[in-house]
Amino acid sequence: MKVKLIRTGGFIPVTKAAETEVNLTDTELVRLLEVIHPDPKAHRIKDGNYYELTVGNNSTPVDLDKVPDKYRALFSKLKSDMRIIKRD
Amino acid sequence: MCKNHFNPIHCIIPPYMIKKLMESGNKKIADKAINTNFRNYRFRNDRIFFHNSSLKEKRILGVIAKQVGKEVLQMKVYDCKQKTDLAGATLLWDSKNNQKITSLAGKNVIKGGKASWDFYWQLFGRNSIDNNGLLIKQYVHFDKGMDNAYWDGRRMVYGDGDGTVFTSFTIDIDIIGHELTHGVMENEANLDYENQAGALNESFSDIFGIMIKQRFNNQDVKKSNWLIGERVMIGPKYALRSLKAPGTAYLNHPELGNDPQPATMDKYQNLPNTSAGDWGGVHINSGITNFAFYVAAYNMGGYAWDKTGRIWYAVLTDVKLTQNAKFADVKNLTIVNAEKIYGINSPEVKAVKQGWAEAKV
User: What's the rounded Cα separation, in Å, for the pair B361 and B353?
Assistant: First the structure.
């Protein structure tokens, strides 16, 4: 399946994104999204960046600090491949 | 002073939501909301009381640490070594030792941190971010190629930039002043980080950031180019924001397109309160209040921090500035504070009113 990592926010709001093919079962994906779900009570970071993972038509906010070791390489690659999406 | 809060959520929920929750049919939710409202009431009254107390009274009450001599800057700089683990960062510099360092990013944030501390202390008698000598913590080389800088509620964090569109976010002193001012704001009105209050929060950071740079470079209102982040964006024609002409900091940039900031209220952008929507356009609509400040400062002349800065600092620390303030509230507070400081019919009051009129607020 194809997953897309999108970064928003920042000192000037810039959206960046990267996508890649992954070999995950639906169960593995659901489990991963549960583990990396951000704390809903988290304080809003001033000028902070926020990430979401899009699979198909569904986007879920993710906290990259919570990514398990098993998936670190995947997210590192997605982060380094991210390109700016020009504003309309 | 939000640090006294029992629960950080108290800083986040706006009053209209608390009111709604207090009327909830669910007893548990209503009880919690009543408790929150009570704490908020006490907190607001504490803030008014401490605001009106003298330094001596504050020290007796333990709000300000006893003076042990001259107030001095306390700052530590850490090197993240391009990792994202803040807890694992290495200490690079400590104001206690003032050791020599070779890191350019480290040198930049030491210079910017000192300029920011000096600005608040020498002009307004404010001792650091919390006015209580808080240790300023700055983290450089965060992550690989991170094109951002932020205040996380406790510290300032800077990336090295992607090397294509952005260089190190430590390069501009106004960015450092901007982030430090987010800390000051959290210790004062703690404006909500969304919609108009969020745009005001951003605007206070830009305004104090630019004044910190102007003071460091000894620039008056005419000499300054009023650009925020004029070096961090690669290319001589680009900056992150312009207070003088919002919406023109970068034009036809190959990657970013055009600067989206409006300068006037009729161009206010209603955006979703999501990260993708910049929390309702906090970095976008801040152009309007930035422009009001610029016009007021330019019309007053001289150094921006002398008069206009004094008025805006009085508003930043005014107990009447509520967490969910709107542009019109800050407009009124700047006029009221300018009248208090300079007199009702003073040229300064006239300049402030002109600023808001030009920004169509």
Answer: 10
